[in-house]
Amino acid sequence: MSRSRTETNEADSAVVLSALGSKYSAEILCAAGTPKSAQALSEDIEIPIATCYRRIEELVDAGLLTCEGRQLSEEGRRTNIYRRTVDEIEIDFSDDTPVFSQKHRTEAKNRLHDKLTD
After folding, report:
1. Superkingdom of the source (predicted)?
2. What is the DSSP pairing of strand 86-92 with strand 99-104?
3. Would you state the pLDDT for residue 113?
């Protein structure tokens, strides 16, 4: 399966770097390889739910995490389900400004992963 590699512009780079620089962001991205709610992510990496929601918002704004839909929680509330949009991020610091490239997850890879983990 192919993964597309894209480079981001300087403004996008600043947003990505800021989001990645926040505590717990990398852990959230790693845990969000499969669709999970904010509550599940919070429990998986043992961080306060308010912190998890803030980091999720930053990662969504940076395009690194996406809301895949909604599902009912055990308490019967509708909750958003998140999954990371990238498998790799490369940062090149050799120029005056950092240059980012990302390997995006394909929908085919997501579907295959979901089938294998069911």
Report:
1. Archaea
2. antiparallel
3. 59
